[in-house]
UniProtKB/TrEMBL annotation:
<protein>
    <submittedName>
        <fullName>Class II aldolase/adducin family protein</fullName>
    </submittedName>
</protein>
<dbReference type="InterPro" id="IPR001303">
    <property type="entry name" value="Aldolase_II/adducin_N"/>
</dbReference>
<dbReference type="InterPro" id="IPR051017">
    <property type="entry name" value="Aldolase-II_Adducin_sf"/>
</dbReference>
<dbReference type="InterPro" id="IPR036409">
    <property type="entry name" value="Aldolase_II/adducin_N_sf"/>
</dbReference>
<feature type="domain" description="Class II aldolase/adducin N-terminal">
    <location>
        <begin position="24"/>
        <end position="203"/>
    </location>
</feature>
<comment type="similarity">
    <text>Belongs to the aldolase class II family.</text>
</comment>
<dbReference type="Pfam" id="PF00596">
    <property type="entry name" value="Aldolase_II"/>
</dbReference>
Length: 254
């Protein structure tokens, strides 16, 4: 699905320019997750809050990620009720997680949930993420862990998930997958990319005989702090996100 700037010509009249720009960026994010092979067929979610509201955009259930478009994204409230009519429904398994976090964390405007193989493997390990590699060090002190309670369908789990997340931006769902949240879509995508790389390296290192070189906690603290500052105080994440979109379009054009 090509989402070049010409897609703006397809904007419905009732949607503001600001909302349409968010829809285009969120559709790009869905396509990038598909491009990198991080999808779980039609499952999982990426949600983006509409600024100044308790509404968020999410994928229509039943579509592949590469079939998501700016126009077919659903607008829902924190309980998952559709705000505008759509021939599609949303996957109720996402409301407990996404609705809880959007409803409680004003600093999280985009939330991404995945079950990639490396991330799900790490989620099964009692120790969770290692902080002894370049990417894992950037996650030091930034990861919360939530005990698996089954498929996330039930409202009574919300306060426990929020307690597990605390003030962090990464939530490992034990025996399941991960959710990452940030203040906008590019920052959330970059955080997911960092978590994915950390998981891939940890899984690969675990398959090689011999001890790993452990990093001191002070190094992890420094790496995590510097990465968080870089993401929050510059256009770095947006540059990264836009570069990945260009790469995706270029490779799919051939």
């Amino acid at each position: 699905m090509d989402l070049t700037p010409n897609a703006a010509e397809l904007k419905p009249a009732h949607i503001s320019d600001a909302e349409w720009a968010l829809r285009v960026q969120l559709a790009h994010c869905y396509h990038l997750v598909d491009f990198f092979g991080w999808t779980e067929t039609i499952f999982n979610h990426i949600s983006a809050r509409l600024p100044g509201t308790d509404h968020y955009l999410v994928n229509p259930f039943g579509l592949n990620y590469d079939e998501v478009t700016p126009a077919n994204l659903l607008k829902v409230d924190i309980d998952g009720h559709k705000i505008e009519p759509s021939p599609y429904d949303a996957n109720p398994a996402g409301f407990a997680l996404h609705g809880a976090i959007h409803g409680a964390r004003e600093d999280i405007h985009c939330l991404i949930h995945t079950h990639t193989t490396p991330i799900s493997a790490i989620a099964m390990k009692r120790a969770g993420f290692s902080h002894d590699d370049f990417y894992g060090a950037q996650l030091y002190g930034r990861v919360g862990y939530h005990t698996f309670e089954g498929i996330t369908l039930f409202a009574d789990e919300k306060p426990r998930m929020l307690a597990s997340l605390g003030e962090k931006h990464i939530l490992v769902l034990r025996n399941h997958g991960i959710a990452v949240g940030e203040m906008d879509i590019p920052r959330a995508f970059f955080l997911l990319w960092t978590v994915q790389r950390a998981a891939e390296i940890q899984v690969a290192a675990g398959s090689i005989p011999g001890d790993n070189v452990a990093l001191p906690d002070a190094i992890g603290e420094r790496c995590a702090h510097l990465t968080a500052e870089l993401i929050r105080d510059s256009g770095f994440a947006e540059k990264f996100f836009n570069a990945m979109v260009r790469q995706m379009h270029a490779k799919r054009a051939h």
